[in-house]
Amino acid sequence: MSTFPSFSKAPIIPHAIFDTSAVKMSLGHHADHMNHTMSSATPSSVHPPEHNHPTTSPEHNHEGGMMMMMDMTFHFSYKNVPLLFSGLVINTPGEMAGAFVAVFFLAMFYEGLKIARECLLRKSQVSIRYNSMPVPGPNGTILMETHKTVGQQMLSFPHLLQTVLHIIQVVVSYFLMLIFMTYNGYLCIAVAAGAGTGYFFFSWKKAVVVDITEHCH
Amino acid sequence: MGAGGGAAQPVPRAAPAQPRGGMMAMYFFFSDKTVLLFDFWNVHSPAGMALSVVVILLLAALYEVIKVTKGKLLHRTVLSVPTSISQESLEERDRASVNSERGQQNSTQKRWFLYHVSQTLLHVIQVVIGYLVMLAVMSYNTWIFLGVIVGSTVGYYVAYPLLKVR
Question: Going by C-beta distance under 8 Å and a sequence separation of 6 or more, which residues neighbour residue B154?
């Protein structure tokens, strides 16, 4: 509790500087340096102990950052970027590069998953149609089998698989949304580029699948 | 003016009007002051807010238009290509086809590729606009939100029949 006032004050001051400085966008790294010197200089009259550890101030920053530091405009920085989980904080260019690649592949995976689900759905529908085709011929009672009951449909393997894939899709899409919500330019570009690449490499499948079902009619 | 006019009156206005100070508003409010997406998009007048709402409205409408366009493009890709690639080309390859037909096949493949690339581009634009609109809504400004709703409605209403008919 005794540390609370010290870092409730620390994030506010750099943020005020951040907002008013117009050079923040392109000079994220530089501006961050400026913030360090400013934040260690400004409160030195109020909090002398903070001047002693300027190196620990970033850690203070991102601990307080979860509470109130939330950028509301786009920026390009690779310092102190929180990523979804409390342990994941980007602080170096290398980490940002890694996060970029990871987010890129996550977005690509999302696109692939979306199309794979669609593909599976069509396939199961087609197979159901094929199975049900010959059945109504011999008897009237077998109609029961062609139109499966709701319970059977729910318990069928394709439907369960679809449900599991749907869960994964929802989780991944929320993750991507939250990543975009960090307003970090690099991560946003990673999301968009991943989505584009994924669509490019997987959507031909979609076209082919649509084609198959069109022919089956 | 706000500071001199009494503490009780400006407080409810001032509190939501500065979500940029690190604290974001977590409920919808009416205000003509906000910061949207970029730090240069700083709105602080009714006229600016009206302009921003129009821009966001157009963005949301564009999203719908792109969505429908993409669907149409996919349909056209499917219609144009598989007849030439999946049926003809497979048969033609077995017969070691003539050069002119091969050239034709090349051109259809090229066209398919063009369709595919443009579809991908549209998809990227759609994803980006979708996220931008989401972030704009996240400013919790009611005017912006209404702009998004109206834009989406108009876009869907206009684009869907317009692009389906052709």
Answer: B57, B61
Query: Residue A22 and residue A170: Cα distance in Å, rounded?
Result: 38
Task: Give domain status of residue B106, yes or no.
Answer: yes
The two tokens of residue B59 are 């963005």
Which chain B residues have any C-beta within 8 angstroms of a chain A C-beta?
Answer: 19-24, 35, 37-39, 41, 74, 77-78, 81-82, 86, 116-117, 119-121, 123-124, 127-128, 131, 134-135, 138-139
* Number of domains within chain B: 1
Nearest C-alpha of chain A: how many angstroms from B74?
7
pLDDT at A112: 94
Q: Is A105 in CB contact (< 8 Å) with chain B?
A: no
pTM: 0.67
Q: Which residue in this structure is represented by tokens 């069109």?
A: A214
Chain A residues touching B37 at Cβ < 8 A? 73-74
In a domain, B7, yes or no: no
pLDDT of residue A42: 40
pLDDT at A216 over 60: no
Distance from CA of A204 to the nearest CA of B (A): 8
Question: Mean pLDDT over residues A21-36, rounded?
Answer: 39
Cα gap A22→A34, rounded to integer Å: 13
Domain boundaries defined on chain A: 1-70, 97-216
| pLDDT 10s digits, A175-200 | 999 999 989 999 999 999 999 999 99
Q: Tell me whether residue B11 is in a domain.
A: no
In a domain, B60, yes or no: yes
> In angstroms, how far apart are the furthest CA atoms of chain B?
90
Between residues 27 and 66 of chain A, which touch chain B (CB distance below 8 Å)?
Answer: none
Q: What are phi and psi of B22, to 5 degrees?
A: 95, -35
Let me know how long chain A is. 217
Q: Of A166, A188, A182, A181, which Cα lies nearest the Cα of A110? A: A166
The pLDDT value given to residue B2 = 37
